[in-house]
Structure formats: structure tokens, C-alpha cells
Amino acid sequence: MMARTKTGAGLAALWAEISQLTEAGELRRLSGAFARFVASLGGPGGGALPDTAPAALVLAATVLSELEGHGHSCLQLSDLADGPAALLGWSDEQWKQLAAAAAPLPRGVKAWGAQLAACEQVWQVGELDYDQPLVLDGERLYLRRYWRDETLVAQAVRERARRLRPVDGPAVRGWLDTLFASQRAAEKPDWQKLACAIALRGSVAIITGGPGTGKTYTVARLLALLFAVAPEAGSQRIALAAPTGKAAARLKQSIDKALSELADRVGPRLPLRELTARMGAARTLHSLLGARPDSRSFAHHRGNPLDVDVLIVDEASMVHLEMMACLLDALPPTATLVLLGDKDQLASVEAGAVLGDLCHDAQAGAYAPDTLAYVRTASGEEVPDGFLGQGGPLAQQTVMLRHSRRFSGPIGQLALAVNAGDAPKAESVLRAGNEAVRWIEHAQQQHVLQLALGGYSPCLELLRAGPPGAHEDWVRQVLQRFEAFRILCAVREGEWGVTGLNEAIEGRLEKAGLLRRGEWYVGRPVMVTRNDYGTGVFNGDIGLTLADPARPGALRVYFLEGDAVRSVLATRLRNVETAFAMTVHKSQGSEFRHTALALPRERSAILTRELVYTGITRASEVFTLVTPAGEVLLDAIGRRTHRSSGLRDMIGR
């Protein structure tokens, strides 16, 4: 048992320092409360006082809980030993003061591991398990539920990656040649064609790539290929899903369009329209799993699995660790899972960076000789020797699409430069004076308001004119105009944050006579901030408030899902916020003709390369960067997102 080096009044300084950091906004109240809870669990009878717990445990529990709020699934003991100030977004001095209040602390990773393993509140993997709240797995400390989720994901993915099906290579090649006949690959090998061959043979496949690389184009052909070569495909249950309603609608729309084009080319020998009709609508992951109100559990799980044979999940970078664990737990062992996403985008707001962990080394390929031999037979593609390697089973089922057919112009050049961390190149593209990429440097808030006036006027003017004919057609057109432009923010609070800009934009549009503000008003765009199963709206859905044609004086919020329009009475929506401006995080899965990214004046740990890249790649035709200080951009390009995780290590075990 670890000696209690600080007890009674000795821990008072540590609790006082934790309270001071909490009041200063540097710590969540939850982190201090969690540390007190953990401290209270030890001792005879499980009822120790918080002031008798080991100082090292209190400090580790506080940091672990705080890092969970930053998206980390665990605490690396090396970070704890060296000082996690950068991970926490603190100054070195703040960490030193907290550590001094807890001194003496263990020195080095091994010493930290030994002291934590000796605490009653910590379960060390491999020892007797008493259901403690903290788990020590090697040199990583976890909250128990995140260790459980990582373990489940790692085990499920590892088993699926090893489970390969026999494939008739020559037959597959014949169909792939047909399905890709109209496309002349811009580069060799044709990674889209190769991805179809890889995904066909496994229980799991990951297809990653940036915007415009054709992820949904590829998966549409994968579905057609499955329908063509699998005898049982005619009766297979195929499901489409995404983290948000908008992303799900876009996935379905893209696949339907691609399959329709293929149907015209392939003709009667492959009834693709039948396949399209049978798939049904794409759904959010919450809806697919059967989310239960006010509960973290789902209707579907290992004991009541999903009724699917093939599941396609788009925008997988947005899927957090807990959701991925629930999804894999509910997926039948015989089903095929295909994950689509951009590994370089921002990870989910919640803990974990699952897609980034799963395809971290996708750029390198690391394909085994037998994989390359299969690819050659099934697709006719020759993979260069540079992609030969010693990757594990999951690497053999992962394909990175490398050629963007949409982002070949200035927006694509800027995105590539930012993604590569090449600040001089990014600055050069921004200063080139191209109409597709604009940089308002040394900007004031009024510049953003002017952009908002120009960007939202077409929608609000059409709204003010009223419907000339069919109401639903007019609503659809209003929503489409609204979706053509968006202002994205890196932060929530302050003059350059979502809250400050939304209020200022509302004032500017009201001054121009385009709207009249109130709690609810015609023309108010709203984002749903919490799943509401009673009304069928989900976190991240964006709608526009319009007059209810059937009830004078009433307002409804209209949502666009593909080409379909649905609405909910405004008074029934309890968890919404105005959405003229939204965070980059919330914009994932969306695309706007013109996107304006507003960065704040101050440098911050949350301003990263991934955030800027994600903001840029939301634009399809025009991108405008608005910065009060240019150095903030350059600083962000040089800072990469790091999330502590043990998932890759667990998969490799």
C-alpha cells in the first residue's frame, strides 16, 4: 500500500490550488469534483476522507478528468511526469504551482506507475478487479469507461480485420472494369478501384481521403460490385449512416445519384435501381442504434444486434470513442463495416480520435505482398513498391484516396499547404489575389458583418418576398440559398466567437431591414444542440424559422435533408441556438458554396492545423479567411492536434 505522504492539512493546499484554477476558468468544476469523489473511495470500508487520499492520486485524477474534457481518452504517465501544461492549455507556471501544492510527487514514469498501482481506487490491468473507477493499463491511466470502450473497439476491429472472405478475383476485375469504365484515373494506381477490391473481401474497411477524392463515389461502386458478385446480395440488408442528419442526407443523395448514373450505363444485367430503392434513407448513428431519451444506452447492442449485412458510415472522423464502441458492439459479426472519412479533419468534440487512430499510417500503405497480389488480380491495379510494408491486418483493409477532383484550384492548394504544415505556401496562396480564396487581414468585426450582409441577403430577400407558388418549393429554395453561405468560428465566446458574432450579425441584418429580432423571429437560423427524439431532430441539425402557412402567427423551423423538407413548430424546440455563425466543429459534414472562417485575435491551444484545414474544406467555390492578426493563422498551422489514446497500441497487441 502506498504511503500517504500528504494527509489532513497537508492536502489543503492542493485542494485550494484546484479551487483557484477552477474559479479562474482553467479547470472544469467536474474535474475537481471527480478528484474528490475518487479520493473519498479509498481506505478501510471504502469511506476515506478527501484529505487523507494520496496527493499523487488526487493530482492524477484531476488532470485525467480535465483531459477528458479536451478529447483525450487517457493520461499518458510520461505526460504526467514531464508536466501536462501544454495538453491542458496552461502556462508552465500554472502547472508548477499545482504540482508544488501536491509535492513530493513521484519522479519518472515508473515511479508514477508504482504509486498509482498501489492506490485502492486504481485497477491495474492483469490484477484482481474490484471495479475501481480508474484503470492503469501499462503506462496509461484511464477513466474506466474509456478503457472499456477502447478495449472493445480494438478487439472488434482487430478481429474484423483478420476475417477475410474468399473472392473470385477475375470476376471482380471484370465488374470493376465495367463500373469504372467512364473514369480515366488521374493517377496510377486508381485508388478508388483498389478500395473497392479491398473492401469487398473483408468484414471491415476504411476508406479515407480529403474532400473531392470521391469517397462516396467509390462506395457507390462498392455497393454495385457487391450486388454483382455476391449470390446473396439480392437479399442483403444495407444501411447508410452518419453522425449528423445533414451528413446522412448528403450520403444518401450522393450514393443515389452515383447508382442512378451507373444503372443507365450497366443496363438490365445489374438491377441497380432495385438496390437503391431497397436501401432506404440514411440515418444518424443515434437513430440507427435506437437511442433512448435521457440515457447513454441504446436499444441495439450485442444482445440485440442491428439487422444489417452491410453498414456504410460516412464522416467517421466525427464519431467519438463511446459511439464507435456502441456501434461495433451492436454490429453482427457477419456484417461488413465500411468507414468513410477524412483522417486529417478535426476529431469529435467528445473524447477519442478513432478514425485518426485507425488509419494513422494510411499514407504509407504498408501493404503485404499477398494483399498486393490480390489487388493485382481483382482490380488490375499495380501498387508501387513504395507502398509495400509490414502493416498489420487493419492496414491491409485501409485505403487512402489521394487525388481530389474538386479541390484542384486555389482552395485545394490552400488546404494541402495547411495540412502539410507549410505556412509560407499557405500564405502565398492567400496573397495570390485569386477570387476563389480571399484573406481579410488585420480585420475588424465590421468586415465579418459586411460578409454576413452579402452572404445572407439573397436568402432573406427571397424569404421577405414570400412564396410565388407552391409553399414547399419556395421553402426548399430559401433553405438552399441559406446553405450557400456560412460564417465559421474557431471559438464560442468573445467578439470573434459564435456568441458575439451571432448577436452582431443579427443587429446588422435588422438594421438593413432584413429581419426583426425577438426570441423567435422569421428568418432566424437555428442549430439543434441536443438530440430530441420527440421531434425527430438531432444535435447539429440546422433549420430556418419561417411563418406557418396553416396557423397565422405561428412559426415553424424548416429543415432540408437532401431534397426533402420537414418542419417542427418553433415552440417545440427547446435546445437550439442562433446559427448565422457556427463553430468549425459543428460544420463538419456540411459544405457551403462560400465559407468565411473567422479566427480570433488571441493565440490559443484550440487553434490548430486541423481546425483551419476543416474550415477551408467546407468551401466548394469561395473561401474567405478573416483574421484580426495574421500571426494567429501561422501559429495555428504550426500546431497539430494531439489526443492521448491507447487504441493503436491495443489493436497491435
Rounded to an integer in angstroms, the radius of gyration calculated over CA atoms is 26 Å
* Residues in β-strands, percent: 5-15%
| Helix count from the secondary structure assignment | 26
* Strand adjacency order, main sheet: 7-6-8-9-5-10
- Overall body shape: globular
Terminal Cα separation, in Å? Answer: 30 Å
What class do helices, strands and sheet pairing give? Answer: alpha/beta
The number of distinct β-strands equals 20
Helix content: 40-55%
Poorly predicted runs are 1-5, 44-48
Arithmetic mean pLDDT: 87
Please describe what this structure looks like.
The chain has 653 residues and is an alpha/beta fold. The protein is 42% helix and 15% strand. The protein contains 26 helices and 20 strands. α2 packs antiparallel against α3 (55-69).
Write the SSE topology:
Layout: H1 12-23, H2 29-39, H3 55-69, E1 75-76, H4 77-82, H5 85-88, H6 92-102, H7 109-117, E2 122-124, E3 134-137, E4 140-143, H8 144-162, H9 169-179, H10 191-200, E5 204-209, H11 215-229, E6 238-242, H12 245-266, H13 272-279, E7 283-284, H14 285-289, E8 310-313, H15 321-330, E9 336-341, H16 354-358, H17 369-379, E10 398-401, H18 410-419, H19 423-430, E11 437-441, H20 445-465, H21 471-482, E12 485-489, H22 498-511, E13 525-528, E14 542-547, E15 555-561, E16 564-569, E17 576-578, E18 581-583, H23 584-587, E19 592-598, H24 609-616, E20 619-627, H25 630-637, H26 647-652
Parallel strand pairs: 2-3, 5-9, 5-10, 6-7, 6-8, 8-9, 11-20, 12-18, 12-19, 19-20
Antiparallel strand pairs: 1-4, 3-4, 13-14, 13-17, 14-15, 15-16
Helix pairs in contact: 1-6, 2-3, 8-15, 9-11, 9-17, 10-11, 10-17, 11-12, 18-19, 18-24, 20-21, 20-22
